[in-house]
Amino acid sequence: MSNGPVVEVTGLRKSYGALEALAGIDLAIEPGEVFALLGPNGAGKTTCVEILEGYRRRTGGEASVLGVDPDRGERRWRARIGIVLQTTTAFDHLTVDEVVAHVGSFYPNPLPARRVVDMVGLTEKRSSRCGSLSGGQKRRVEVALGFVGDPELIFLDEPTTGLDPGGRRQLWEVVEQFTALKKTVVLTTHYLDEAEALAGRVGVIVAGALVEVAPPRELGGRERALARVTFARRGRLAGAALPDLPGATLEGDMVTVPTGTPTAIVGLLSAWAAAHGEPELPALTVTRPSLEDIYLEMVGPAGHRDDGVPQ
After folding, report:
1. Statement to judge: residues 207 and 251 lie in one domain
2. Any alpha helices (H) in 125-164, and if so which ranges?
3. What CATH number is attached to the domain comprising 36?
4. Does 245 map to a domain?
5. β-strand 201-206 against 34-38: which pairing, if any?
6. Domain limits at 281?
7. pLDDT in tens, 205-256
8. Rounded CA gap, 45 and 38, in Å?
């Protein structure tokens, strides 16, 4: 295992001619962490990950992965890393067990192939040829190939794309098993619930710049964002004058109150409703901005780039 951060980059840049895909990223990822990289298509996520994998050379800046410059990583270093790409070519004429065992043989200390096949939920398909599998099942094989080498660090590039909800949850469990062994995961995903469920921290890339790194619950000031208390002004409450509710809005019979003290507001409204003969507030909800709400606000209209730059 390396000392210090597993991944550390300073001023990381990548240009394609006049186009700058990465505009000077600083980032450190600690051992045992699940770190999710978020951003719209074309923002630079995949470019960043491919540089860290040693697949793509950077234009400028410094990078260290497991204590090694990925531009100079050799076979021993590569054996410490697992990669699940967005798409790979399946070995159509081999069975699931055969292809996982075959790829595992490239590593010095692989996990048992049968165990990995079980982990990704392909037990019943272990003797099936890969060419006969569905798209979602092939995706599970690709994930198995990333894990079979028992790497210290694994890169998961949109690992659950094409999977049904059950398959996604199962692969989340695989990631949790992996991190329970103190391994490190770098994840890119377009599923905000996936990032929130798995990652201790997330980083948001917009137009090649890393705009923020934070735990999901803190991203974009989410913990401090106002809650919204919503209820229906119905029945005995329809004609009742509302108490003092700064910022309240009315749409139809629905009242929405933005507030930093939702418990106090609900208490005030409950007492108001009871005073008018209503023991319950109709259609009461209390919500805070979701990670998706915060993310969409952060990326904004400038977040999408369709200029031919790799993601």
Report:
1. no
2. 135-147
3. 3.40.50.300
4. yes
5. parallel
6. 226-287
7. 998 999 989 898 888 777 777 889 999 999 899 989 999 999 999 999 999 9
8. 7
Are 25 and 293 in contact by the 8 Å Cβ rule? The answer is: no
What does the pLDDT look like over 169-217, one tens digit per residue?
888 888 888 888 889 999 988 888 899 899 999 999 998 999 989 898 8
Contacts of 241-247 spanning 24+ positions with Cβ under 8 A: 242/272, 243/268, 243/269, 243/272
What gap in Å lies between CA 140 and CA 114, rounded to an integer?
14
Q: How far apart are CA 8 and CA 186, in angstroms?
A: 12
Q: Is residue 125 part of a domain?
A: no
Is the residue at 204 inside a domain? yes
Report if residue 202 sits inside a domain.
Answer: yes
Name residue 124's amino acid: E
Same-domain check for residues 168 and 264: no
CA distance 254 to 251: 5
Give the three-class secondary structure for 216.
coil
